[in-house]
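Why does this matter for the project? Reviewers at the last site visit asked to see concrete outputs rather than summary tables. In response, this paragraph embeds two records directly. Each consists of the residue sequence and, immediately after it, the corresponding structure tokens. Nothing has been edited or filtered.
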Amino acid sequence: MTKVKTYLGILVVSGLLYAIPVFGGHFEEPATSPILMHLVGSLTIDGEGAMPGDEVGIFSKSGKIVGTFVVEKKGIFGDIAITGDDELTYEHEGTLGGESLEIRVWQKSTNREYSGGDIHISSPVRGQAIYTPYPGTLLQFEGETFYLLNIEVAE
């Protein structure tokens, strides 16, 4: 399987600007869907802010990639758009409502992927703009929501 890198770009069509999403080389690009859950927040690996080029991948219970983000600013991730399944199509694009999600983090400098017990999530004290603190320690899909979340990676 060949992995394709997509870089951030700006496309101007009829005077309108369109942002092109950034996908890295470690996690594959997820399918698209109009049903989305959005995550932003802090990301630390062994107590230090994640570095640009590190990646976050969100996976469904069945192991399907449903969201990804490449860190651009030290210690910050997001907006990760997590795709839900569009019931109006025959294709299974993403995760189902209430389904548990798995977070994986890839550290570029060590070429190491972290998952399972290495990943801990916590909720910030308060939200910011349209993002509200994520209510819990087990990530579950809720369509059309915007959450703020801290992800800590520690062995």
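We now turn to the second protein, recorded in exactly the same manner.
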Amino acid sequence: MLYREFEHGGTNSIEDEYMLDLYRINDYYWFEDKNGKFKAIIENVLPTGHLVLKTLENEVRRRYSFKEVAFIDE
């Protein structure tokens, strides 16, 4: 069904399904970037592939490219 929609130019359902299936999508978890550890929630994945996180502490939105941020288990 998603493929049929894609054939006709629709991508919204595919994007919605992708967001629902992301690992650790619906809660705040620990991440680490070059500046240290922080707790954040995945807010979006942009068409460019950038990951958008919203921090718990001050609700700042941060955008990351591939390998600029990592999940950490705490």
